[in-house]
Specification:
single chain, 218 residues, two-stranded antiparallel ribbon, 11 helices, 4 strands
């Protein structure tokens, strides 16, 4: 139904991009952008008889604008793609849900859901510059995974045996297995970081965002 909008924008000579009902129109100055926005809203509502969401429709500088989850920033080479802060918030909220201590997921179910979600997210946002942010998110995600794994090792004996299996000496393993603190606090402890290190998480089949991003980038 918006083919007529495309033709109208082409007739007016506006550079634009549209996907389904999401559209961005580019102008040189904000005054021109505001005038164009008002004209196009009137065209959509009065000619095409469609309703425009006024709350989501605005004119402004391209930096900070959101389009299909992406945002834009400028460097020496020109404008480049990034991920909008709202999309990052949704990413973190979903990962927090998947790594919740009490969501009823077992080892394999959690690995599968994480792999599917991370793969889909990276594939969608692979055009953006996201390396630095992914590194920070991965650190937070690994701590969440350690928290879940530590809860799985409920009994002191299981914790002791698993710590030794992960390369911790017996004295440290016995002392650490008897520590009683919150799961999240324990997940940040140096001993558990050594036992459930990044490489061990990879061997166990847990997905990290940077690992998959490197595959896509290469």
């Amino acid at each position: 139904m918006l083919n007529e909008l495309d033709k109208e924008l082409e007739r007016r000579g506006h550079p634009f991009v549209r996907y389904a009902d999401d559209c961005m129109i580019f102008c040189k100055i904000k005054r021109s952008a505001t005038r164009t926005m008002n004209h196009i809203i009137r065209f959509i509502e009065e000619t095409l008889f469609l309703r425009v969401n006024r709350e989501k429709t605005k004119a402004g500088y391209v930096r900070g604008m959101k389009f299909l989850g992406y945002a834009f920033y400028k460097n020496k080479s020109g404008f480049r793609l990034s991920v909008h802060p709202q999309s990052y918030m949704k990413l973190k909220a979903r990962l927090k849900e998947l790594t919740g201590r009490s969501n009823g997921m077992g080892y394999e179910k959690r690995k599968y859901e994480l792999h599917q979600f991370i793969r889909g997210w990276i594939e969608y946002f692979k055009l953006a510059d996201i390396q630095n942010y992914l590194k920070r998110i991965d650190q937070w995600l690994r701590r969440r995974l350690r928290m879940c794994i530590w809860k799985y090792w409920k009994k002191i004996k299981a914790r002791f045996n698993n710590l030794i299996r992960c390369g911790i000496d017996k004295v440290r393993a016995l002392r650490f297995a008897n520590v009683r603190q919150s799961y999240l606090c324990m997940a940040g402890h140096q001993t558990l970081n050594e036992a459930i290190c990044t490489e061990n998480l990879r061997k166990a089949g847990y997905s990290c965002l940077m690992d998959y991003y490197r595959k896509i980038a290469s």
